[in-house]
Amino acid sequence: MTNRFDFIRHFSSSFMYGELTDKKTIDKVRETFDNYESNCFEVLLYRKNRAPVWFYMQVAPIRNENDKVVLFLCTFKDITVFKQPIEDESTSGWSKFARLTRALTHNNRNTSHHITPQQLTPMSSHEVSQPKQSRLAEVLQLGSDILPQYKQEAPKTPPHIILHYCTFKTTWDWVILVLTFYTAIMVPYNVSFKTKQNNIVWLVLDSVVDVIFLVDIVLNFHTTFVGPGGEVISDPKLIRMNYLKTWFVIDLLSCLPYDIINAFENVDEGISSLFSSLKVVRLLRLGRVARKLDHYLEYGAAVLVLLVCVFGLVAHWLACIWYSIGDYEVIDEVTNTIKTDSWLYQLAINLGSPYCYNASGSGQWEGGPGKDSLYITSLYFTMTSLTTIGFGNIAPTTDGEKIFSVAMMMVGCNWLDDW
């Protein structure tokens, strides 16, 4: 085709129609665009100077990967030289010859085809209809090799590299998020209440969580990431170096089998608590996955649920700290006596399970409230303090408890002010 250019216009080229443009052809052009079809026409259009020009117009819809038409490719070929001249004031005498010469010069300059004198001779109706039919068949049979396809090309990655936004990685990140919340709840509780994983069910469950975090480390060595310029980095060496410099050490410390170590009876209590405390570094994963929740913040219900979850998680952490302070101060290690002003001692008296000294056995203080009652009471105190509606039935008495209560109230007031 000669004088080919891409012409993009919403639905039609109606702004180029004029008084001599055939109405039936206009309707066909409109129907072609409305029905997203391929077609070709001989149509009379007008230039900006209102000069009429005959065009051979071809229309081809361009589809994306979803088989949806996103634009039309329209090509135009000037065929004025082959059409009967339009009779007006400018088509008399030498004007006809000048017009024919200009059309020939224009076509010779833009194509590699040279029009011979034989091509300028009048053609029969059969000779005209045959090229038209062949061109129509050509347009209707345009395949993917001719028509361009506009698609979002996925980055080409090595076989062992995973795209960070693929379905598998997205699902895996949500699994890691759920397990991170599980860790955020259980680790502070185990550290504060000094519980060893003697229950085989919980030991197996925590071991499975550790294995999943270990698998996550392996996957992170084979997962693409977004570079500083917004490009997707799929080079294995760059991926490994980036992960080693960022989250590798934290992830490695978080997936070590601390629960299995704590399960042994001969492990010192201090070392056991230290190993359990190291699992708290998993909480740093919350910052890495929190950005995945950003697109949910535009929904009011999602924001409300998120705030409630965060409030409950913070109250849980503070409850564990509140119990740890009381458990540390309830017994005077110097005199080996019970501090009667401690909130733990008062709770033990109220529940009818006081502390007692086992002089004949272990030589330590035993008894007191159960761990379930201790946790529920601690959580009750922290929630009432954060919301500034404390009833006074659980009150700080020692200096450490008072300092912690003041800090917790300041956090609660600042939080409520932000809400």
UniProtKB/TrEMBL annotation:
GO terms for molecular function: calmodulin binding; voltage-gated potassium channel activity. It is a multi-pass membrane protein. Keywords: Calmodulin-binding, Membrane, Phosphoprotein, Transmembrane, Transmembrane helix. Its main location: membrane. GO terms for cellular component: voltage-gated potassium channel complex. It comes from the Eukaryota. CDD domains: PAS. It comes from Oncorhynchus tshawytscha. The chain crosses the membrane at residues 174-193, 200-219, 299-323. It is found in: Membrane. The gene is kcnh5b. The keyword Transcription regulation does not apply. This is PAC domain-containing protein. Pfam families: Ion_trans (PF00520), PAS_9 (PF13426). Residues 39-91 form the PAC domain. GO terms for biological process: regulation of membrane potential.
